[in-house]
Design brief:
By secondary structure, the chain is of the alpha+beta class. It has two domains: 155 residues; 89 residues, no CATH class. It is 27% helix and 25% strand. The chain contains eight helices and 14 strands. The protein has an eight-stranded mixed β-sheet, sandwiched between helices. The longest helix has 18 residues. It is elongated. The two termini are 30 Å apart.
Length: 277
Amino acid sequence: MRCWREPIGTPDMQAGISSASLLPAAPAPFALIAGNDFSTLPADAEVALRHMGLRPERLDVSGTSGEGAAFRLRLGDLYLTAAPAGDRAVARIDPAHPSTSSLAASLPADWRSGGRCWFFEPAPIGNEDEEKPSMRDFFMMASLLIDLFDASHFFWGPARLWSDAKQFRASTAEMLASGMPPVLHLIAFRQHDAGEVEIIRTRGLAHFGGQEMEAARPTGWTVADLVRRLARLSLDIIINGPVQEARRLPGLDPGEWISMAPRGPSEALLVEFGRNP
């Protein structure tokens, strides 16, 4: 479901959608599950990474969240550490954990075994005053690694979200061409029951837009109806920044409206959907 082609909101909210404004955020940890035929991964990972142009340097694994061979990778100004996921990393990405989400992507039963799961973390660049690496380089590197590992699944740390690696790669290619972020691969939309009301909250939006959102599901709407609209609003926030004051906007369908009310700095943006009588 591609929800971001026609963002909700006024023209000023939609302004600035370009590659120049591509995800102004810092790279974050992610993980990959190598393809079912693990033998397709070259035996000499260092050589394969070098052929990809990622300039690998061997690291002491004790300084990473992995085990086995560890490398520092570089693309442009971006540095990542890469290693087979160790116990600490596995605990952070376990799909069975209730705080982990999945975008219609069931992991293979043996995802932990045989070094199939690799974990990647941004590496310190030394000087905090230096310009942070671009998300364009980050997603280009992630795409190269998906190809190298013939990866089946991709995990995005800020959202604690697993998704299909090939779909993520295709969405990334579209983003690099159009500037439209792959919202559904970067933000989890999690359901919560609050008595008679069902709430959907975002997780991972704050990494890009400075705030999370939550909304109650209106009577007669499906979860997909609400997620579709929240995904479009997420795109507006990613591109234009957090909502700082209460706003009321026209919605997706004729007669529909959206109300957005910021709360405390640590609380999610409260979103309400309704329809004119």
